[in-house]
Amino acid sequence: MADKETVDFKTAAARFGLCISKAKNVEDITDLTSVFQATPGSVLFHPFSEQEKKLIVDQVFRDLVKEDVLTAKNMERCKFLISLVTKSAIEGHCSPNLVFILLSDVFDCITLEQCDPLFTFVEERVSIWTMPLFFSAGKNLLLRMCNDLLRRLSTSQNTIFCGRIQLFLARLFPLSEKSGLNLMSHFNYENVTIFTQRPATDQKDKNSSTVSEMEVDDRVAKELTSSKDEPRYFAKFLTNEKLLDLQLSDSNFRRTILVQILIIYQYLVGNVKFKSTNQVLNESQSAWVKEMTSQVYELLKETPPDGDKFAKAVEHILEREENWISWKNEGCPSFIKERIESDPKPTPTSRKRKASIGDEVASGWRSKKVVMGRVFLPSLEEYFSEAIEQADPEAMVEDEYKVIKNSNYGWRALRLLARRSHHFFQPSTNPFKTLPDYLDSVVQQLAQELPNLKNEESIVVNGELVNCIVQYNILLFCCFF
């Protein structure tokens, strides 16, 4: 152990810093990889040598980013270093949460004008932040960074920037993320609307008819005008009581107020889990809310333009809101169902398949239809006897009534000729004939030859038949019958 090379922090940091400074692009970390693998662990912290080297690389990156932000004011170089940190974290050379720590530090050190392009850089890499390596290690850091930015921004002057941050968080975190849910259904008590009330008396003070002149200090006036106003919430309708009648006569303001009334009514009669017992309506109150809801919908239908269409759209949206209320009451379960990993079923041993050859023969033997010595293929004389008689001119049988005109008879005749007669094979030079004409010519030839043919079909069986002949005859028997 004494001969093993130890890690000096400054030496290792200098090595890593030199490799990082030489990098020309994000993918150029081969030198850093080589030095990281070649640098041995400390003797004292030998079991944690890899983690110790990662801490050194983390500190080197932080020093370089600090120099670029505070000293050089080079934001492009800062973006390049953050991209290099991302690549190094994927390769295992630094901590996965380092990139989020650096981003938080940089946002804290720069102005709001510089935050806009840097946040664009963060938005473009949302697919990287959602990787399991970075998301599990830095989701809380990202959320804290975005919340710090929102606190610095003005909701009235930086509306677009605030919206971009909200959209980024919506893309980054799933819908069931607990940090973005109001699980207890708390109200936003910070949203305070200031109403202008009418004065108790409208009489002017008679003694204030003459106003005395006073000296104005320019310095005090300048301080008062330059002081920052408190942020105020502006509703869609004005809050002055004198303007209420004028607002209700305007269709846009009237729609806004009626829709807000419907939202309040839905909350009052809805089944909200976190309502207290004294916030539940009785039967008479629920009936009154139901009646007023119907009247509000009627007023929306009568409000131009497209009042009927607008009322149906609002009703549909509020019906969909019931699903979200049920989801909140159930504790906001995740929409993604995890796959249940079941134990793999044992592969059943395959049985040897029974050969299907000879099934018809076996069934024939079992049903006792096969008789030893029986010939299932008819002879030429037996099958064509009727056709030969009809072919005789003395029989005077019309062509349309001859058996050779029957297609079923013709098909069986062809199969029989293929097995019993050489007349089935015709020379290729003969012209093509229809099936009845072909059978007519064959019948005429058979009429001349049959008296001289031997009875080839009579088979004398001495107790047994050859299996192949039996199988062939049975197959022909199935075709004929």
TrEMBL record:
GO biological process, one term: mRNA export from nucleus
Domain of life: Eukaryota
GO cellular component: THO complex part of transcription export complex
Region entry Disordered, spans: 338-358
Pfam family, one: efThoc1
Xref: PANTHER family: HPR1 (PTHR13265:SF0), THO COMPLEX SUBUNIT 1 (PTHR13265)
Protein name: THO complex subunit 1
Organism, as annotated: Acropora cervicornis (Staghorn coral)
